[in-house]
Amino acid sequence: TIAISRLQAGRILINFGKEYDAIRNLFNAHMYGIKAGLIDLAVEAGAIFVEVAWPYQNESAERMIKQTMNAKPKSAGEIEPSIEIHPEDAEGIFKWCTAQVLRDYGGKDRPDIRAMLMLSRTCNQTALFENLLKSPVLVEDIQLAELCIEFVDEKEDWASRILEISSALAPTDEDQ
User: Fold this and answer.
1) CA 120/CA 169 separation, integer angstroms
2) In the chain, where are the structural domains located?
3) What's the predicted TM-score (pTM) here?
4) In a designed cystine with 142, which of 8, 131, 165, 167 is the match (CB 3.0 to 4.6 A)?
């Protein structure tokens, strides 16, 4: 689909230092992912978009939907336009992605939540994770629990949860 190809193009462009084009492709991947019902892909593209675009926020920037609609191929030697992202685009995509990954906290491997929680620190959006950070008993992913403990002042409940998860993962005499 278009979403998959735009996500791959965005990744490749980042590797070549072409942030302007990468940001557009990642935005398109995010939007087409949503339209196609590919929520995991839309979250991945959206998270990468936010990570790359966050430093380029500007209140006077044109909205991304207009930027992508007005995009046209560049001529050889043409100077890349400056990167400007409207804060509503960056924050809106971050909040949408966060809402998708926080539908539940269960599962023994939740790299989606871990990635968004780490990104929340960069984006100063940790308040969106308040319910997660108050719910250690609902977390089954030990790496997520170990990350959550870094975000709270009262660490006792998270430390207990990490111990519980670790104990459940440890081999028993019956396993040997």
Assistant:
1) 28
2) 1-59+81-86, 102-170
3) 0.90
4) 165
